[in-house]
Amino acid sequence: MENGKTASFTAVSLAFFILAASLAGFLGATGPTPDLRALLLLGVLVAVAENQCVLLPNQTSVSASFMLSMAAVVVFRDGANLLGPLIVGMFGGVLLEHVRGFDWRKVACNVGIFGLSTLAAAAAYSVVPNSITGSVPGQLLAAIPAGLTYSLVDYALLAPAASTMTGRSMKDLADELWLGDLQVYPFALLGVLLGYLYVALGAWVVPLFIAPIFIARQAFLSYMQLKAQQEATLRTLVRSLEAKDQYTAGHVERVAMFAEYVGEELKFSTRRLHRLRHAALMHDIGKLTVPNHLLNKPGKLTEDEFARVKHHEFVSVELLRRIDFLLPILPTVSLENQGLASPDSPIEPHIISVADAFDAMTSTRSYRRALAQEVAFAELRAKSGTQFHPDCVEALVAAVERRGERYGAGHERDAVAFAVPPPVVGVGSAGLGDLEPGVHADEAVEAHDAERSSR
Amino acid sequence: MSRAGRVAGLLGLSAVAGGIAALFGNHTAVELAVLSTLVVVGELLELRPVGRAPLPLSFAVVVVLVRAGTPREVVVCAICAQVFSLFVRDGAGRLRAHTVVAAERITETLAAGAAYRVVIQALSGENATATVLGALGAAAIAQILVADVLVLARDRTVAPLRSRGADLALVTSGILMAVGYAGVDGKGDLGLWGVFLFAIPLLAAWYSFELVASTRRSYEQTVRALSVAPELAGLVPKGHAERVADLGVALARELGLGTTEMDDVKTAALLHHLGAVCIDEPALDQRLDPAEVSAAGASMLSASEALAAAGEVIAAEPQLHRPPDSVAGSFPAALGGQILKVASAYDELTDGDDAHAAWAVEALFTGPAYVYDGRVLAALERVLVSQGRLTSTRVPRGA
What we know:
The complex is a heterodimer of chains A (455) and B (399). Chain A contains 20 helices and two strands. With 455 residues, chain A is mostly helical. Chain A folds into two domains: 2-225, Orthogonal Bundle (Arp2/3 complex 21 kDa subunit ARPC3), CATH 1.10.1760; 245-454, Hypothetical protein af1432. In chain A, a hairpin with a 5-residue loop joins strand 1 (54-55) and strand 2. In chain A, helix 1 (3-30) packs antiparallel against helix 8, helix 12 (251-265) runs antiparallel to helix 13 and helix 12 crosses helix 19. The two termini of chain A are 39 Å apart. Chain B has a two-stranded antiparallel sheet with strand order 1-2. Chain B has helices at residues 3-23, 28-44, 58-68, 71-88, 95-122, 128-155, 165-182, 192-197, 200-232, 240-254, 259-271, 290-302, 308-316, 333-350, 357-365, 374-386; strands at 46-47, 55-56. Chain B has 16 helices and two strands. By secondary structure, chain B is mainly α. Chains A and B meet through helix 10, helix 11 and helix 15 of A and helix 7, helix 8, helix 9 and helix 12 of B.
């Protein structure tokens, strides 16, 4: 962190902490003392919940601490109605990760923000008359302003703190923070009801409430681990299987990467991106049924051989059809017959098709050396609207250019030591039709040869 | 209609009934109708943890039901709910199987009701909270115990403690929903609100378990899709991998292997010919070398952490059988390899047609003792007989 940012963050953190601590001191000196057992139980649970939060793939996190803070708002309503929730909330800022790293500024900042947010929620809840909070619908109604106030204060304090810490603008952070707060809001209702039962029946209701949430958390963690393991396994297997075709080393993983670029550009959800990656990793699985001598044959294939190799696309789709969660994104007919305009057809096969063609053109194959990136982009755009989906083409070009990445001649990641040198431009580029030799082709040869000689 | 549609319809039905209950004074009958409908919804939603038979969410609703109704009302509600469930369960047309499940559920509900009454009476006069909590806990646990006994009788398996997280979620949620519904000693009574709202943590658990189950399913389907590739390439007879996997799992179970080892045998069986697609084709008049195929497949799988154990099983397949004591670490990879070898050889000998079962078993037994493990061969006979694929064993039971 730069010095300026460090100083600002330190100032903001201290300000929040001192404000929360001063308010606690003032409320403690002037108001009733909160019930110690409730304070400790809820405070510790809030801290544990916050330390056990689950990080989601979209970088947001989920924890039960908000729910427990809202329960505290109800539990302390008839006694230390502000001090109790303030202290319980402050417990939520004690993250072991920060304590172990002696990152006291973050601890101070979080303690302040959690405490002040819960205090504000308690203040909002305390103005609701008892006649309303006496019934269940009234409780649920009262949870709305309390939850909203919590979110508002949390947002108002967290945005400047995060901005001084990360250097990102407040505007950039706004969407993420609001989204995160809105996602957890329904839990405010549950928290208020938990508080109601706590007051009516005692502290023993808390473990009954926490247990299924803990089990849900464990199962959700298993799901995320399993998903990551599944993808890692698939990548490993695909890499091993690629050894079958010496000219396509790394092809499948690059296609999955380019497909993901396009998916991100088209604002796909995390789940949809996962499905797209999975399909892209398996898009060439049908090639396992093609004899090795055909895949690695130098030069041109006969018509029969070409048909045999081409058949692998059909086999791939047939094999992928056996995986239920990929069904929604598989083409119902071949892409050639499907056309590009059908509004009902999924866009994913088009994404994979563009990613596949781009990688094929920018890699050396047994029948042709790698083309330059510009040639590949030009070729994709030339066939955009006929062979390729225009949105996918533009999304891929934009994503690669924005990242400043280079592919193709002179930039190949997996160079092939071929026995018979492939032609510069010959029988076509991944089914795109013949490309005329030209200035780009000559550049490609030079770049490719230079790359080989440098290894 | 989809399951989501059925659940939504039933919830709408129960919401209407709940609304009626809220509008009119004495509404026990309507509330019982709502709870019965929720039992049906709970029958459609199951917690499906790994290594444990599925548990329906209806178990939690039944805890509320036994708290809400008299014994007679509980029996009537349980029967009505289960009869209604017959028509909304997945797999319409499997009436016989659904009827068995319905009978099991009614038995479990009766057990829950009985446990609740026994504990309430036994603890009467004690602290009201402890009595209610004890009775509700007994009701929730009684259902699970009866369900366990039924699974034990049917599948001869008992779920280990580490797979009991779902049980805990059901028991605690059931108690909380029942307490939220009727309160204790006149306090904390939230009515149907308590049931609906305190079901949310349980629904969160259900959703997480569903995510795990769907991920495992897609993983298994991916492996199965890969297993078909050698068959489509004409390197292996059609259906070979699936048949070997089914037989391999049955042999592993017969030989007492655990769930993890059984999964490894299954994965190994499905992928044991995958190596064939990566090695160069032999000359026209020659077959692929099985040892080379196994080595290629094993090396492929060993690169992946999750498949490494299955890779070891494939690597062990071509090895000669030695007496277990003389082989260090012979379990489970070596035994898995022997299971795979026997299952694969049996399938190749019969070509998937059990008409040749007796001949194939005879052929396997007459091979040298160092080729096939006698324990696995004996297990093969027992499995084939129990599955009705072979009429009698040539080896006395217990060999």
